Structures are given as C-alpha cells and as structure tokens.
Amino acid sequence: MMKLTLLIFVLILSGCSNDFNTICTYYDELSKHPSIDSLSPKERYNLISKKVDDLDDSNAKAIWSVLGTAAADEQYEIFQRAAVETDGGSDWECPTMEALMSISIKNKTADSNLKEELDHLNVTTMENADFSYRKRTVPIL
Amino acid sequence: MSKKIRNNVNIIQNTSGIIAAIGLDKVGRGTLGNLITPATWLLNYKVQGNTPSAVDVGIYASGFLSAFAGAAVSTLKAYMDDDINKKVYAISQQQEPKFQPFILPVQNYGVNPPFIEAITIASHGGTTWQGKNGQWVYIVDAKGNLVLDFNPLDAVKVYRPDFPLVKSSDGKFNYSSY
C-alpha cells in the first residue's frame, strides 16, 4: 500500500513538473515562428494561451491563468518560482520563455467605474474595510 | 464544509479517477480509515476551532487511503495545520493588533500550492505577503473582502494590485511585488 501511495504522489508531482516544461516548449516553438518579429505582444500571448487552455488542470495552468496581469518584468520570475516550488525546490529555467515572456502580455484596459465594482468582487480598500472585532467566520485550515 | 466539497468536486473526481484507472478501487475503503479521518477533524475542531480543509475533504471523500495510510496522512496533516497556524500567528503579531484576527494563511484561499494561491489572491484584488518564516498570508476585512492596499510590516515580499487600479478583460487586476 505504501508503495502504491508513493506511486500516486510521484505521478502527480511528475505531472505538475511536466506542465511547466510543456509551456516552456510552447515558447521554444514560438521562437521558431516564421513571423515572430511581426507578431504583436498580444498575438504572441494568445498563441501560447490557446495551447495552455488545452492542457489539463495543473499547477502550471493555474499560475498561467493569473500571470497575464502581473507586471511585465515579473512574469517570468513568478512562473519560475511557481515551477521551482511545485517541483520540490529543484532548479527550473526556460531561457526562451525568459526572453519572450516579458513582452507577451495582455492588453489591459482601465475601468473608470472600477471602484464601484469592488463590492461585487468582494474586494475593499483600507479606507472602506471593516476591521471591527468579529467572531471568526473564516476558519483557519 | 459542503461548499468546500462543492469547490473540490473536480479534485475528488480526478483523484478517484486516477485510483480507478490504475486498478486500486478495491483498496483502502475500510471503515476504520474513513472513521479515523473525521475523528482527526473533530479533534482539530475541538482544539482549534478548525473545520476540515479542502485537502482533508479530498482525502476523505476520495476514500482511497487505507486505515493506516489514512491515519498517517491525517496525523501529518494535523501537524502541518498546527505548524501553519503557528507561523500565521507569528506573522500576525508583526501587524497592528486590530488587523491580527483578519490575517489568514493562503492555504485558506484554495488548494493550489501556497505561492500560486498568493499570486491568485493578488490578481483577485488582495494583498498577500510572505513572512520571514516562509508562510504566505493575506488579509480580509470583517466581511471577508480582500483588502487591496494593506501595508504589511516585516514582510519578505508583498504582492498586491497596482494603483491606479486596472482590471483586465477577464476580471483580474494588474499587480506587482513590493
């Protein structure tokens, strides 16, 4: 039983690691795209995203899904750190991704009514937050 | 708890699917294992006021661990929960007293690894930070809202939305580290 349990965890861990590597290979492929120099940052991002969308749910896919709004110069660092922490602390790097990711960002649109939307998003500011003592309603673990 | 189960149906189903796929569906469905795990939850609840986490629910609901493996994992999980709570307490002590009850471990937010959950929180509009003990935490107000612009003290790294606030077409906020 112990061996079987270990096998399951190894399979799960190796699967997570492979998805980070898989996304890295997408960047390798992108670097060889015949029109790479003429592709806009959004087009590059969309090419990668379409492939990532087809992957099964994984840690790599989870971090990718929230990477598009990270500061451009932090995206690779965030992805790399997620890979390293998920992969048990081993080194992980993808030079092609590092070279291309910082410009492969989504176009972002400012929303003038954003503050009015915060309530609907369960988000607040320090100015409006209620830090009065409460009975704990959110359990810790 | 029912919400947690709903939120993790995919995990439970996936886990069960993996087990079934490799032919282990006949192992580990012993009554003892299924009883020991909730007993550990009960102990946690009695001692710490904690309800079972998504991981607890996933382990239990998938029902694939044997009695001994289940007990071992549950005991390990209880130890880890205790360790996390101690680290969160240490981080919260660095903040102003009125904020301390509202600081939570990122493990509360979802089932992904802590760093991924931290980044997810920032993209959803929250402030998240890593304490010197390595634990990632975030802050909510009394209504459970993520707080955009909290300034944690004594943090190793902070992620939070950029100002002025900008939201992408898929509803996520621009964010940076500080």
Structural description of this entry:
The complex is a heterodimer of chains A (141) and B (178). Chain A is mostly helical and 141 residues long. Chain A contains 6 helices and 1 strand; from the N terminus they run ααααααβ. Chain A has one domain. Chain A is 52% helix and 1% strand. Chain A is globular. The two termini of chain A are 28 Å apart. Chain B has 178 residues and is an alpha+beta fold. In chain B, α3 (31-48) packs parallel to α5 (67-92). The longest helix of chain B has 26 residues, at 67-92. The chains are: A mainly alpha (141), B alpha+beta (178). At the A-B interface, α1, α3, α4, α6 and β1 of A face α2, α5, α6, β4 and β6 of B.
In short:
Chain A: This is Lipoprotein. Chain A has 141 residues and is an all-alpha fold.
Key words describing this protein structure:
heterodimer, A: 141 residues, mainly alpha, globular, B: 178 residues, alpha+beta, 2 domains, five-stranded antiparallel sheet
**Rg result of chain B:** 18 Å
The total of beta strands of chain A comes to 1
C-alpha Rg of chain A (nearest Å): 19 Å
Mean pLDDT of chain B: 73
Layout of helices and strands:
The complex is a heterodimer of chains A (141) and B (178).
Chain A: H1 2-31, H2 41-53, H3 59-65, H4 75-86, H5 95-101, H6 114-117, E1 123-124
Chain B: H1 2-7, H2 9-21, H3 31-48, H4 54-62, H5 67-92, E1 103-105, H6 114-123, E2 128-130, E3 136-139, E4 146-147, E5 157-161, E6 175-177
Antiparallel strand pairs in B: 1-3, 2-3, 2-5, 5-6
Helix pairs in contact in B: 2-4, 3-5
Keywords (chain A): Signal
Protein name (chain A): Lipoprotein
Signal peptide (chain A): 1-19
